[in-house]
Design goal:
- This protein is mainly beta.
- The chain has two helices and 37 strands.
- The strands form ten sheets. Strands 9, 11, 12, 13 and 15 form a five-stranded antiparallel sheet that branches. Strands 18, 20, 21, 22 and 24 form a five-stranded antiparallel sheet that branches.
Length: 510
């Protein structure tokens, strides 16, 4: 085997360890035995980015980092969250659109002496950090070795007053090259920012597309946005277009490099929260974890296809799938954003929205805007369409009170194990098993670690049965205002399939 073949094998293995996916297809070789199933191994490195939490001087932000214990990891490793390089731009999108980010600190130098916001000690125990005020930067995190598989970081901000008041939560995201955000807005009452964070050593070039009720919205300032290395750029969506749109779908497409992306949606009277990216366009979607006391639910959906889409709308309730009266189906025109007010759809019961094609399958993205409270005490959260967790998902930053875990199994009964970790300040982990019946959603008051001190993480593992989707609602009311935030629970991608190299790969030299 020559150097070329060895390099190929090393490259494939490294790709699998870093990205969570690798496949090696080789031509059939005479005399070669049957292919051996790929081994499932823990990932060795994970990158996450956390957006700038707030511009409010009265904002308080907490970070919670957690890695579940994973068999087969090395005995060493580390994880850290470092500030992204401070920007010289104004944050209104104009400098970014011109490629004007310098990637330097305010004093003109590189940010080489930054201190990690938090550094975990051991998997299985959360670690917390915090910051306050409107100058807190975006963060870029890396985890290696035993801290990488399933590493999850929650960013939770409380703002007592002003536009976007309430609890704003987001799960720090892995960088990628495509993001869809149905549910954004450029209406007068809203100030929505798309936060782009580049964790790499080279600039990223990004296109930001906007789609409203009539189709694509002209936004030339959103083309070719440059995000400097190790930097974050918040861009006010209303600066990208002269058109005020109540309901928008934002498409982030990366020409070169990769970024993390999230939309911060701030309303003058309805509070605010983070809008995370929808699951990739698909014919069927699940939007899990609508609070049972939701006072208003608004569905925003979009198909990037040229053809229209017709979807059946159902609610997975505690007793099974039901069709909401007056909202049996929704019709989406190709390339146009559609919004439907579903009102108090849950009627004081746990619920998840399930969208399926009425006939021909057309790829769709979707999100829900959810309101709780009445009058001037309303507060907003968002639920994007989510993917199932195939094996395991984690939600950090839980307390003894105020957390609700919502699980749904839309197509087949499933059994899951929920583990409450040790607390960040002490306590003993506990686990409990639940059965989620086909077509239902179950709200769970999660188990609490015995002797809990501090915050803890919830890890959900699918043991058997059909696909499971989940979300965690975190409430923290202040002065009578029902502050809350919702995060969906995608698979943590802690394991990766690495192909065996047992067969003769000499054919690759030909």
């Amino acid at each position: 085997m020559n150097r070329t073949t060895l390099s190929l094998i090393a490259g494939v293995t490294a790709l699998a360890a870093v990205t969570g996916f690798a496949a090696l297809d080789t031509p059939d070789a005479a005399g070669a035995g049957p292919a051996t199933a790929a081994a499932q191994l823990p990932v060795e490195r994970t990158t996450l980015v956390c957006p700038t939490p707030s511009t409010s001087d009265i904002a308080d932000t907490a970070y919670t980092s957690f890695t579940p214990v994973t068999a087969g990891t090395s005995g060493t490793g580390k994880a850290q969250l470092l500030p992204a390089t401070e920007q010289s731009g104004t944050g209104d999108g104009k400098d970014a659109a011109k490629g004007g980010s310098t990637g330097k600190t305010k004093d003109g130098g590189k940010n080489k002496t930054a201190k990690s916001v938090l550094e975990p000690k051991e998997p299985g125990t959360p670690v917390t950090g915090d910051t306050s005020g409107g100058d807190a930067p975006a963060l870029i995190g890396t985890a290696e070795g035993k801290f990488a598989p399933g590493w999850t970081v929650q960013q939770t901000t409380e703002v007592a007053a002003g536009a976007g008041r309430g609890v704003l939560g987001v799960t720090c995201t892995a960088p990628d090259t495509q993001f869809w955000f149905p549910g954004a807005s450029t209406a007068a009452a809203r100030s929505d920012y798309i936060h782009l964070t580049n964790p790499d050593d080279s600039p990223a070039v990004v296109d930001i597309g906007l789609y409203g009720a009539e189709g694509a919205v002209k936004s030339p300032a959103g083309e070719g946005v440059t995000v400097a290395p190790h930097s974050s750029e918040p861009i006010l969506l209303s600066t990208l277009t002269d058109s005020a749109q109540q309901d928008l779908t934002v498409h982030v497409s990366v020409r070169s490099g990769r970024v993390g992306a999230a939309v911060q949606a701030l309303d003058n009277s309805l509070g605010g929260d983070w809008l995370a990216a929808s699951a990739d366009p698909a014919g069927s979607l699940v939007l899990p974890g609508i609070p049972k006391d939701a006072t208003d639910v608004r569905l925003v959906a979009f198909t990037p296809a040229d053809s229209d889409a017709d979807l059946k709308v159902r609610l997975a309730s505690p007793s099974g799938l039901i069709t909401p009266a007056g909202h049996e189906t929704v019709h989406l025109k190709g390339g146009m954003t559609t919004a439907i007010d579903l009102g108090e759809i849950t009627r004081e019961e746990a619920g998840s929205l399930v969208l399926t094609p009425t006939s021909r399958s057309v790829p769709v993205v979707a999100a829900l805007r959810v309101l709780r409270g009445k009058g001037d005490r309303q507060e907003t959260a968002f639920i994007p369409a989510a993917g199932p967790f195939v094996t395991r998902a984690t939600s950090p930053d839980n307390s003894a009170k105020g957390s609700t875990l919502s699980l749904t199994a839309p197509t087949a009964t499933a059994q899951v194990k929920v583990t409450a970790s040790a607390g960040s300040g002490g306590g003993t982990a506990v686990s409990k098993t639940y059965t989620i019946k086909e077509g239902t959603t179950q709200d769970i008051a999660p188990p609490v670690p015995s002797g809990l001190k501090g915050t803890y993480a919830l890890t959900v593992e699918r043991i058997s049965g059909g696909s499971v989707y989940g979300a965690r609602t975190l409430t923290a009311s202040r002065e009578g205002n029902p502050g809350f935030t919702i995060q969906t629970l995608p698979d943590d991608r802690g394991m990766v399939a690495v192909p065996h190299a047992e067969q003769d790969l000499s054919v690759l030299q030909k």
